[in-house]
Design a protein that fits this description.
Metallo-beta-lactamase, Chain A; 10-stranded mixed sheet; 8-stranded mixed sheet; 10 helices
């Protein structure tokens, strides 16, 4: 009852109509609701971190990350729609609004790609606290308002491959997972190589395979992976991996359509001094070609290196940006394929900070959109469209409507 009241408060008490047949949409109209058989991937523009809501063709609901950076405008773009609610509350409102078309009010799975504030949340004094002492921020707040049946984490409970740092956000993240486990709710460490850890509500509706995570990469055999990192005894002060290296990466297959998301994977080898620190390249090579990809590490300078675009060869990239350094100019050029004589690719940015806009001005005429929720809608035959909706309110008004495209595996 208490949770129902919270959700009614979040949604303002309104009711949502179930979707009918797919409707054609034009810019200025609202995004038509999901309908059975469609796969929707929503990259949510909160301005303070990553949050990707997935509504499967069978009504399966998943969330990849929910960040809540708390540095203010000087560190990040202003929150969207505004500062009246937390990032977690806004994301829940968004997810519930779209999941209503499938009659869903809970999540089947939450995937925490790695433990950083812009992906899992960051506690501050004054935030609500549960009886277990868990501060509700980011993913922990999502789970309180839109409970998940399963949480997949990169290293819980022991984080043996790389211990978490002793920062408040990391301590709180672990406390949330421990509280779930103590309550008998499912928490699992990622099974790199598995296509069975996340199961659709309807068998065979889609496949989600984990191709990387916790410093490992898929070998190509079901459920099998190998370590990417040197033994800890060989780490030095300069070459010790960090949390970003441990990000979970996944490929979502729906018929011929393929989508990649890799959290904050990085490729920086310190100018070749430590080649093994490039975890991005072997993981995207294991992933293979896709149609749409989320940019690693927000398109930052240490990610989306040549191997990223070469291996994935996506037709569209989504950069989940929230900071002046998102994206780096070289990373943006690479994703755009922005050299004379090359076939252009589509790039969408959930939010472009004014400073980044100035730095990247040369390439912005080629970028499809620089702010808003970026939605990928896929039909059973692999045809898909990219939409962008206005993130300044909750009306889901279209600011961009792409042409229908065919998944590359069908074209080839």
């Amino acid at each position: 009852m208490r949770r129902d009241l919270l959700i009614r408060g979040l949604l303002g008490g309104g009711m949502f109509a179930l979707s009918g047949p797919p409707v054609r949409a034009t810019v200025g109209e609202t995004l038509p609701p999901w309908s059975p058989g469609m796969l929707d991937i929503h990259h949510i523009d909160t301005g303070v971190g990553n949050a990707t809501f997935i509504l499967g063709p069978d009504g399966t609901t998943m969330l990849i990350d929910c960040g809540a950076t708390r540095g203010g405008p000087s560190a990040s773009t202003p929150p969207r729609p505004d500062m009246s609610r937390s990032a977690g509350a806004w994301v829940v409102r968004y997810a519930l609004r779209h999941a209503a078309a499938a009659g869903r009010g809970t999540l089947d799975a939450i995937i925490a790609t790695h433990v950083h504030p812009d992906h899992v949340g960051s506690p501050l004094p004054g935030d609500p606290v549960t009886r277990d002492g868990v501060v509700l921020t980011g993913l922990s707040e999502i789970d309180a308002l839109m409970p998940a049946d399963l949480v997949i984490d990169r290293g819980f409970p022991d984080y043996a491959a790389l211990p978490l740092i002793k920062a408040p956000f990391a301590v709180n993240h672990r406390a949330w997972l421990q509280a779930r486990q103590s309550a008998g709710r499912r928490v699992e460490q990622v099974h790199v190589g598995s296509s069975r850890q996340v199961r659709p509500r309807k068998a065979g509706a889609f496949t989600l395979r984990f191709v990387g995570g916790d410093g490992r990469v898929w070998t190509g055999a079901e459920g099998q992976s190998r370590n990417l990192l040197l033994p800890p005894a060989q780490w030095t002060t300069e070459s010790t991996p960090e949390e970003n290296h441990m990000s979970i990466a996944m490929v979502l297959d729906y018929g011929p359509f393929r989508y990649f998301a890799g959290g904050d994977l990085v490729a920086d080898t310190h100018d070749g001094a430590f080649p093994w620190l490039d975890v991005e390249t072997p993981i995207v090579m294991a992933a293979g070609k896709v149609d749409v990809a989320s940019a690693d590490h927000h398109g930052y300078f240490d990610a989306c290196w040549p191997g990223f675009t070469r291996a994935l060869d996506a037709d569209a990239y989504v950069i989940q940006g929230w900071h002046a350094t998102h994206p780096a100019m070289a990373s943006l050029q690479r994703m755009l394929n922005g050299w004379r004589g090359r076939a252009p690719r589509d790039v969408f940015i959930t939010r472009l900070d004014p400073a980044s806009r100035s730095v990247n001005a040369r390439f912005l005429p080629q970028v499809r959109s620089c702010e808003g929720h970026v939605v990928v809608r896929v039909s059973p035959d692999g045809t898909y469209r990219m939409f962008v909706t206005d993130s300044r309110d909750e009306q889901d008004r279209l600011t961009f409507r792409g042409e229908a495209k065919t998944a590359k595996s069908v074209r080839t």
